[in-house]
């Protein structure tokens, strides 16, 4: 079945810093999985996307607990060492809102 879903504006795939979102800007994402999928697609080469449970992180707008997604260097060390963070996102399932905090 053909469906003409309205396409959201997306930044060009080639980005100077490799990441899709500027820090501290909230954006709407339907699910945590979708955020992870999007990050998997936009992450720079040599990095890994990982969902990390961090307790006591609450969304300031609704006080619900947030999930944390980190992007860090992989074992190739191409971009960063595995213990160095490339970006950190938090996702609020209640608001369907994600924010990049690093
Ligand atoms: Zn929220």
Tell me what you see in this structure.
By secondary structure, the chain is mainly beta. The longest helix has 11 residues, at 32-42. The N and C termini lie far apart (40 Å). The chain has one helix and five strands, in the order E-H-E-E-E-E. Strands 1-5-4-3-2 form a five-stranded antiparallel beta sheet, covered by helices on one side. It has one domain (26-100). The radius of gyration is 14 Å and the shape is globular. Zinc ion (ZN) binds next to loops.
Q: What would the principal axes of the Cα set say about the shape?
A: globular
Order of helices and strands: EHEEEE
Overall mean pLDDT stands at 85
Rg on CA atoms, Å: 14 Å
Number of domains in the coordinates?
1
Largest sheet: 5 strands, antiparallel
Assign a percent range to the helix content.
Answer: 10-25%
SSE map:
Layout: E1 26-28, H1 32-42, E2 47-52, E3 67-73, E4 85-92, E5 97-100
Antiparallel strand pairs: 1-5, 2-3, 3-4, 4-5
Name some characteristics of this structure.
single chain; 102 residues; mainly beta; five-stranded antiparallel sheet; globular; binds zinc ion
Task: Provide a compact summary of the structure.
This protein is mainly beta.
């Amino acid at each position: 079945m053909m469906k003409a879903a309205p396409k959201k504006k997306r930044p060009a795939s080639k980005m100077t810093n490799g990441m899709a979102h500027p820090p501290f800007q909230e954006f709407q994402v339907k699910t945590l999985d979708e955020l992870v999928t999007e990050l998997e697609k936009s992450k720079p080469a040599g990095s890994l996307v990982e969902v990390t449970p961090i307790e006591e992180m609450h969304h300031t707008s609704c006080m619900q607990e947030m999930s944390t997604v980190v992007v860090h260097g992989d074992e190739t060390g191409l971009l960063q060492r595995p213990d160095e963070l490339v970006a950190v996102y938090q996702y609020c399932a209640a608001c369907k809102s994600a924010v990049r905090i690093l």
